[in-house]
Amino acid sequence: DAAGNTSARIDSNSVVLDTVAPTLASATVTNSSPTNLTGYDLVYGAVTDTYNRYCILENDTVLANCTFVAGTLPSSFAVSAVDGSKILSIWIRDAAGNTSARVATNAVVLD
């Protein structure tokens, strides 16, 4: 204050700056190709770090088109009923907003 008095030190909560994105090693569609099923079964490789949201896009590699969903990666994904080759692009995101690199699945033809 103006008289030169100083207060005792007050410790605040610590803050952790998280700038590391989670990593998804791989993703695979296990349906045979061609298939007539629109539910594509998925298996995933190792995930490093924690994540709380994911995005899966069909035949689209643009992260800006993602609408992230809360939760863990699903064991299946419903693709559009339009025949043709389909590749899924997958991203995961942590609570700090760090987003993984895109992981592409193998191509599976819907026929």
Task: Provide structural commentary.
This protein is an all-beta fold and 111 residues long. The protein has strands spanning 23-24, 27-29, 39-44, 47-48, 53-58, 69-70, 76-78, 84-86, 88-93, 103-104, 108-110. A four-stranded antiparallel beta sheet has the order 6-5-9-10, with no helix packed on it. It has a three-stranded antiparallel beta sheet with strand order 2-3-7, with no helix packed on it. The protein is rod-shaped and about 85 Å long. The termini are far apart.
Shape, principal axes of CA atoms: rod-shaped
Elements, N to C (H/E): EEEEEEEEEEE
User: End-to-end distance, in Å?
Assistant: 78 Å
**Tell me about the biggest sheet?**
4 strands, antiparallel
Read across the widest sheet, the strand sequence of neighbours is: 6-5-9-10
Integer average pLDDT: 95
